[in-house]
Specification:
The chain has 289 residues and is α/β, with parallel strands linked by helices. It has one domain (2-137, 202-288): Rossmann fold, CATH 3.40.50. The chain is built from ten helices and seven strands. The chain has helices at residues 2-8, 74-88, 101-115, 132-135, 144-154, 168-178, 189-209, 230-233, 235-251, 273-288; strands at 22-26, 33-36, 57-60, 94-99, 120-126, 219-224, 258-263. A seven-stranded mixed β-sheet has the order 1-3-2-4-5-6-7, with helices on both faces.
């Protein structure tokens, strides 16, 4: 992964200031849903969740605000992100959500907010990944095409199969074509690739060192039960093991009630439009409950 970062980073930290620390996907009243960035450092994948929540929806991105130092651990990230959340919504209550590595960070943010005496009504974990292997189960998860797909998905463009062989310039053309010539990305492509690659490297290191605490509230875990690789050959076995494994791992880190919702998708398709159709109403019920 260090090689990946070196290939993609370009000028270090160029363009990072153009990504805001907190994105507001939906404003309004009610309990805010605070969505923690994924392993690539971006929260844009959560934009579609505004449909499933009546209150405000915000996304925490992995870029520093003025005067913030970069934390060296997930616990440090939790303190920083709790500060950001309370700067917007000082009194709470709050709902926390995260996908993949973001689920692990959201869990720690929930613990930090509770330590401060705040009310966390619900913790929602979307196929949370406590290990790098769980977050990136195949080599393809780490290659350049995967990052291309992530960027194009964020720009609401479809990703044709040939994108796996694209270079930077062709990927930029693809995004222009896919969005009628109106690119929605806030960063130039190479700057974005660099930001995502650095975030990926740093978060993988943090995840390896992380020892999760115990959240004293309730949690719902949405589990992707379709596998990749061997799991495709043994779908029933994969689904059973995925669901049981997630519950076994998280039950000891959640002191309140914890429940799971199996979803017929893979880890990396958890937030696609097709997957959200499968569990969106259950997500709405979890947030309203």
């Amino acid at each position: 992964m260090a090689q990946l970062s070196q290939r993609l980073a370009g000028d270090e930290h160029e363009h990072e200031a153009e990504v805001v620390p907190v994105d507001i996907f939906k404003d309004g009243s009610g309990t805010p849903l605070c969505c923690i960035h994924d392993g690539f450092g971006l929260s844009w994948s959560y934009r579609s969740l505004a449909t499933y929540h009546d209150g405000p929806v915000i996304g925490i991105n992995q870029v520093p605000s003025a005067g913030e130092a970069e934390p060296d651990s997930i616990a440090g990230m939790a303190v920083l992100y709790a500060d950001r959340i309370q700067a917007l919504y000082p009194s709470g209550p709050y709902q926390l959500l995260g996908w993949s590595i973001g689920g692990v960070i959201a869990h720690e943010v929930a613990i930090e907010l509770r330590r401060r005496g705040a009310v966390v009504e619900r913790l929602i974990l979307l196929d949370p990944a406590l290990t790098p292997v769980a977050a990136f189960p195949t080599r393809r998860s780490l290659d350049k095409s995967r990052i291309f797909e992530k960027i194009v998905a964020a720009s609401k463009s479809e990703v044709p199969a040939r994108s796996r062989q694209l270079v930077f310039q062709r990927a930029a053309e693809l995004m222009d074509e896919g969005d009628g010539g109106q690119r929605e990305l806030p960063l130039p492509l190479e700057g974005m690739l660099g930001l995502m690659a650095r975030s990926l490297d740093a978060n993988t290191r943090r995840l390896r060192r992380h020892r999760p605490g115990v959240f004293d509230g309730d949690a719902v875990v949405f589990v992707a039960v379709q596998g990749e690789g061997l799991g495709k050959m043994l779908p029933g076995f994969q689904a059973k093991m995925a669901n049981e494994g997630q519950m076994r791992r998280w039950r000891r880190n959640v002191a309140g009630d914890i429940s799971s919702v199996p979803v017929e998708c893979t880890h990396h398709t958890m937030l696609t439009e097709e997957s959200l159709k499968l569990y969106g109403e259950q997500l709405r019920e979890a947030l309203d409950g």
